[in-house]
Amino acid sequence: MSVESVFPQLEPLLPRVSKPVQYVGGELNSTVKDWDTTTVRWALMYPDAYEVGLPNQGVMILYEVLNELADVLAERTYAVWPDLEALMREHGVPQFTVDGHRPVGAFDLLGVSFSTELGYTNLLGALDLAGIPLHAADRTEDHPIVLAGGHAAFNPEPIADFVDAAVLGDGEEAVLEITDLVRAWKQEGRPGGRDEILTRLAETGGVYVPRFYDVTYTGAALDPVVPNRDRVPATVAKRTTMDLDAWPYPKKPLVPLAESVHERMSVEIFRGCTRGCRFCQAGMITRPVRERSIQGIGDMVHKGLEASGFEEVGLLSLSSADHSEIAEITKGLADRYEGTNTGLSLPSTRVDAFNIDLANELSRNGRRSGLTFAPEGGSERIRRVINKTVSEADLIRTVSAAYANGWRQVKLYFMCGLPTETDDDVLQIAAMAQEVIRAGRKASGRKDIRCTISIGGFVPKPHTPFQWAPQCDPDTVDARLRKLRDAVNSDRGIGRNIGMRYHDGKPSLVEGLLSRGDRRVGRVIERVWREGGRFDGWSEHFSYERWIEAAANELEPLGVSLDWFTTRERTEDEVLPWDHLDSGLDKQWLWDDWQDALSEQELDDCRWTPCFDCGVCPSMGTDIEIGPTGRKLLPLTPV
Ligand code: SF4
């Protein structure tokens, strides 16, 4: 049955809301397919505002992969701002896609990509606006299957009541397999209804359907989570796409209509990271390292620029300077685009993988505006704890060379609230920044150089060695940051060249609850949403008090609390809510690495050393995939 666009009802509301252009769709490289001639229809959601959601690579890739299939349709939907939400409720306009402005409730599947847990209240908002029951148990065959993906899906227990399923790991191949199963089930006349299609998805071993797993407690503690039916595996494994060159997406990047967080095209140059930073969930859950080839990258840059007209290319990964052929890649691209408006950037680089030759190649067509590094910890001691093996001498050498080569601005990222951290570890951030300015003045012979330090609150994450760690309470984090600010300003002659940016510790505690929570935390999320919680990643919308009150009201009658989920240290024998979700990492290896952290022992990168048995490659049937290929960029198209 045909589905009508809701645009005629939406359009009169748009002059009354902020940034109406974000709701109209029609971006360059977007697609609207015919509803009636397609069999499987996906709505893909990024649960944040358009300006954050549109550049999201995960959604962009799946959108294109799915729309390439003739009988499949995929459209995008984002969280609507509270001003439009109020008008949509008043006028009965449902959650819609920005492509065909079709009601999200009419699709077969709603795939939601969570980069952060702070998007959970926006999921509930979208479900409710779409007319989809909040609780998966209340849905019928007429409602979409709600699937969670993204990094937060590695512990979907806090949203287990609201999603039908979760997919761990890479999505490219997973969405095709899910599409095949849904297509076959629909063509067979939907035998067994919703229960049967969810069972078929769960049977693959790579789709987690929470309702098929019983969750019980002994006192406050979680019992092992076990399946409650035969056809369902005891553990659910993550997906890993091995040959990135076979998946050169996005081929035609979406070009935003409204201002967005990234006004550039991104090309993912490799996936995974084995540096082993113990705080880094992204690095742990995306192992092993899989590099895209030089030719593959060169081709994607060429075709993507041609299709989009962007003037900047970000070479994306978790630590881009770590690509084994990064020098050839940047030189090849800088040669190819010499004298044009096309600029290159490496959005994330490590101090120890960076050098000035690389920086010079990157800035050949652009301004030497700023360099960004993430030492993460202020003292050598805390950097050993977190396994961020970069020395202060390395950093000073690198930034001195940068200032000597014409850069005027260096940004340094740190975390506060790390396991075992003391005031002194944090105060050493000030000493490091002051040393950077002194060394920079000496190297450049100028006084007007700047260093900005940016500090975020640490949140222990599932599937990392810090999953057992007590989270630092916000009062301690805030007190340390105040002391740090005083230390930075203690030497006025240098302090005025140092900028300091930080957030208070409270949102991190809520993120901690949502990251390491179990199914009991779902009640808190629902209460916060019902009491007006929206856009929790935005300081102007986030209410700490609302979360604290909801946690007290919902958790304490169950014998647990906000502290129980956050500032409490876990024991080795404790069942963790994600133990039945397999990231490939061996739990004993993670525990041993946690013990190594406490005794300040570092661990090497397995890319360049023999395997140290984290468990991923044998359990997932994967391997590290790195160069050198010994080949150069092809084709070296003159521009
Ligand atoms: S199994 Fe070995 S080679 Fe593979 S990611 Fe883990 S440590 Fe590295």
From TrEMBL:
List the SUPFAM superfamilies. Answer: Radical SAM enzymes (SSF102114)
Please name the Gene3D superfamilies in this protein's record: Cobalamin-binding domain, tm_1862 like domain
Query: GO: which molecular function terms?
Result: catalytic activity; iron-sulfur cluster binding
The Radical SAM core domain is annotated at 259-497
User: Which CDD domains does the UniProt record give?
Assistant: Radical_SAM (cd01335)
What PANTHER family does UniProt report for this protein, alphabetically? Answer: RADICAL SAM DOMAIN PROTEIN, SLL1084 PROTEIN
Specify the protein name.
Answer: Radical SAM family uncharacterized protein
Organism for this UniProt entry: Actinophytocola oryzae
